[in-house]
Write a structure and sequence with these properties.
The chain is built from 3 helices and 4 strands, in the order E-H-E-E-H-E-H. By secondary structure, it is an alpha+beta fold.
Length: 92
């Protein structure tokens, strides 16, 4: 299933851990938003990993399922994929 995952994590250490988890499942499209394609068992695994990290009273993670029809109608204006300005760049 296709899904958008958005999160707001209040502490930087947890934020980085959640971002690393998300990279195991999908593609970053904005700073705290990922596109993921997972099966139901993999989605359960993803949620379990996230729930072990977050503090529910302070942090938030939202999962937005996209049906195939909806995923096919996504419109992109500007850059189509997020490029993290904080990551390392290599110039050859």
């Amino acid at each position: 299933m296709n899904m958008i995952v958005a999160y707001d994590i209040t502490e930087e250490k947890r934020l980085n851990k959640i971002a690393k988890i998300m990279l195991d499942y999908g593609v970053r499209v904005q700073k705290s938003i990922f596109e993921v394609t997972v099966t139901p068992p993999v989605f359960r695994e993803l949620k379990e990993r996230v729930e072990k990290i977050i503090v529910k009273e302070a942090d938030g993670v939202k999962y937005f399922p996209l049906c195939e029809k909806c995923a096919g109608t996504v419109e992109i204006i500007g850059q189509g994929q997020f490029s993290d300005p904080d990551s390392e760049y290599y110039v050859y």
